[in-house]
Every structure is written in structure tokens, then in C-alpha cells.
From TrEMBL:
InterPro entries: Tscrpt_reg_Rrf2 (IPR000944), WH-like_DNA-bd_sf (IPR036388), WH_DNA-bd_sf (IPR036390). It comes from Kaistia dalseonensis. Gene3D superfamilies: Winged helix-like DNA-binding domain superfamily/Winged helix DNA-binding domain. This is Rrf2 family protein.
């Protein structure tokens, strides 16, 4: 089974945590939270920084902090900042490009995947990180956790 790309979910997680903290979060703190390496985290966060969603400060008291409010950042924004990772593990084959059966299969599968991806990315554009944070708030209250 192909390993899934969890960068989108992980970065959404990080952005919501960043919103919950007044002080910047260091790469080490975030990496520990996500059980990953700080270097990998910084590489992933760089795309968000380049798009202006987060900023990093060096030195004592430095770290990562939000540059925009969560209601100004959509799932699509984060997806694009991550370099538009493939949303599906499925894809066409190219074993026998001259085979008419393979061409027909690839056309049908390709059309369906493009339609599904268009729908998914349209949905991503409608959901902000603030929407997810509000859902988290409801879940937290339902579990007796106050923020």
C-alpha cells in the first residue's frame, strides 16, 4: 500500500496550535509535537513562509508565528503552499502507450480523477483554518477542555 502524504494535515495542525500560543513556537517544539525532524519541519514551513502565512524569527525568543489570521487562510492556500502534492495515489499506466485498451482505460480514469480533484480543491477553497479551529473548540468543550 502506498504511504499517504500527511503534510497538509500536519501543517493545518501546526497552524491551529500556533494560533493558540502567544509566543512563537520553535522548530524543535513543533517537530516534537509532530514527531518529526526540525530540519524537515523547517523545509515544510518554508512554503508557508514564502506565501506569507507564517514568519520565522531567529535568535532567543524566536520561532514560528502566524502572519495572517486563520480566517484568512484556506485549506487550498496551505495545499498550494506545500507545492500541490498529489491528492490521489491512483493514476494512469504507461506500460503499453500504443495499446488502445490502455488508452481507453487511462482516458476514463484520468477524466474521473481530474473531476474528483477539481471538486476536492473547490471544497478546500471554501474551508478556512478558522473553520477547523472552531470545530476543534467545540470538540474540546465537549470533552471538558477549556481554552
Amino acid at each position: 500500500m502506498m504511504r499517504s502524504d500527511s503534510r497538509l494535515s500536519r501543517m493545518l495542525h501546526v497552524l491551529i496550535h500556533m494560533d493558540q500560543h502567544e509566543a512563537p513556537l520553535t522548530s524543535e517544539m513543533i517537530a516534537l509535537m509532530l514527531n518529526t525532524n526540525p530540519v524537515v519541519l523547517r523545509r515544510t514551513m518554508a512554503g508557508l513562509r514564502d506565501k506569507g502565512y507564517v514568519q520565522s524569527e531567529k535568535g532567543h525568543g524566536g520561532g514560528w508565528k502566524l502572519s495572517r489570521s486563520l480566517d484568512e487562510i484556506s485549506l487550498l492556500d496551505v495545499y498550494l503552499a506545500l507545492g500541490e502534492p498529489s491528492v490521489f495515489a491512483l493514476g494512469p499506466t504507461s506500460d503499453h502507450p500504443s495499446c488502445l485498451v490502455e488508452q481507453a482505460v487511462n482516458a476514463a480514469v484520468g477524466d474521473a480523477l481530474r473531476e474528483a480533484e477539481t471538486h476536492l480543491l473547490g471544497r478546500f477553497a471554501k474551508v478556512t483554518i478558522a473553520d477547523i479551529a472552531r470545530d476543534f473548540g467545540v470538540r474540546a468543550r465537549d470533552h471538558g477542555i477549556q481554552f
